[in-house]
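Cast an eye over this sequence plus tokens and walk me through the fold:

***
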Amino acid sequence: MADSFELPLFPLNTVLFPGMYLPLHIFEERYKEMIGLCLREQRPFGVVMLREGGVGREPQLEPVGCTARILQMQPLEGGRMNIMTIGEERFRILSLRHHRAYLVGIVQSAPLRQPQEATMRAAANRLYPQLVDYLKNLARLGKVEFDLAQLPDDPLTLLYLSAAIIQLPMEVKQSFLLIDEATALFNALQQGFQEENRLLRLLPAEEQGLFSLN
């Protein structure tokens, strides 16, 4: 069993996947404090999806999130800042602590279990054409050009990029992050892309401009 460790948590209404970028605007005092600590100590924080919560109520968090490493920081007036982060690894929350202004989790690393390299490569080869079709459909509808040559060759990177790109509700994306095995995630994404590509092909020309990768 992996060792547990303490991790500052940033609950958000979004899902971060390993290897994916996430820009954030930091303006609340508690998160200024948290990001300041992470910058000083060069440590990551955890992005975790917020189920529900509010003033006077215990926040309800999803059990699995992704660590975020700060790549860039732009200071703004009043101590606010813009930061660019990149997802690093999945983690599972074991318990929460409330001794700081922000939430702190006792967490455990939860890397995706992967089959042998040949199996991963075969699964990526099956997913790749569906991802390409999806990007072409989005380009056709949104008049946006994608450089398909920039798609990664590494199967795990392609897997998480696909999970980040597909335009589905955050609850569905969180269900992808919850999956512990690469093969199961490949299968879930294949099904997702098949259905989305079918729907996108049915959209008329006047639906242009509805889609974005942001």
Summary: The first strand starts at residue 4 and ends at 12. The mean pLDDT is 91. Residues 8 and 147 are 36 Å apart (CA to CA). The beta strands are 4-12, 21-26, 45-54, 57-61, 64-75, 81-97, 104-109.
